[in-house]
Amino acid sequence: MDQLLSLLSENARLSTAQLAAMLNKTENEVSDQIAEYEKAGVIRGYKALVNWEKVDKNKASALIELRVSPKRDRGFDEIAGRIMQFEEVESVYLMSGGYDLAVKVHGKSMQDIAMFVMRRLSTLDSVLSTTTHFILTRYKDGGIILNPDEEKDERRSVFSD
């Protein structure tokens, strides 16, 4: 039923009747499988992908790289768990490479995010350093192109003399 998971990850609004027809299964089989996935924690929730740039001009996002010192016997899980508790935090990822954790955050403004990093994130005892990358425009998110037919925003254009 990996096909079921693929279909739901692409469009969680498909009805069980639509999914059953696409998978050549009965509605009961699809419903039962979805219930099993939810119970087992495979499906953790359903979410709409919102293009916030069309809704609220006063919303800022950033990707923050963190270098952390993991705790003995608890690794990175403890610090990741603490970071996940902040309401500004949307996502936390353990990474390979030059930094340990990637944290995606939202705020009302870039200033709000900067203050969150300065006052709450960088003060955690395991955090060694942070690097903040403000997200200026989302072109594609969750596999979906957000502004496929819009005219280009001149603020993002580079002009040569």
Describe what is shown at a glance:
The chain is 32% helix and 22% strand. It has 161 residues and is an alpha+beta fold.
Description:
With 161 residues, the protein is an alpha+beta fold. It has 5 helices and 6 strands. The protein has helices spanning 2-10, 16-23, 27-40, 77-84, 110-121, and strands at 60-68, 89-94, 101-107, 127-135, 140-141, 144-145. A hairpin with a 6-residue loop joins β2 (89-94) and β3 (101-107). α2 packs across α3. The mean pLDDT is 88.
Write a concise keyword list for the protein shown above:
Alpha-Beta Plaits; two-stranded antiparallel sheet; single chain; Arc Repressor Mutant, subunit A; 6 strands; 161 residues; 4-stranded antiparallel beta sheet; 32% helix; alpha+beta; 2 domains; globular
> Which fold name fills CATH's third level, the topology of the largest domain?
Alpha-Beta Plaits
By CATH's scheme, which homologous superfamily of the largest domain applies? Lrp/AsnC effector binding domain/regulation of amino acid metabolism (RAM) domain
Averaging pLDDT over every residue, what do you get? 88
Largest sheet: 4 strands, antiparallel
Portion of residues in beta strands equals 15-25%
What sequence of helices (H) and strands (E) makes up the elements? HHHEHEEHEEE
Return the CATH architecture of the largest domain: 2-Layer Sandwich
Overall radius of gyration: 20 Å
Pick out the low-confidence regions. Answer: none
Strand order of the largest sheet: 2-3-1-4
Q: State the total count of DSSP E strands.
A: 6
Cα shape: globular
| Helical content band | 25-40%
Structural class: alpha+beta
Q: Can you identify the CATH class of the largest domain?
A: Alpha Beta
The domain count comes to 2
How many H/I helical runs? 5
Q: What's the end-to-end separation, in Å?
A: 57 Å
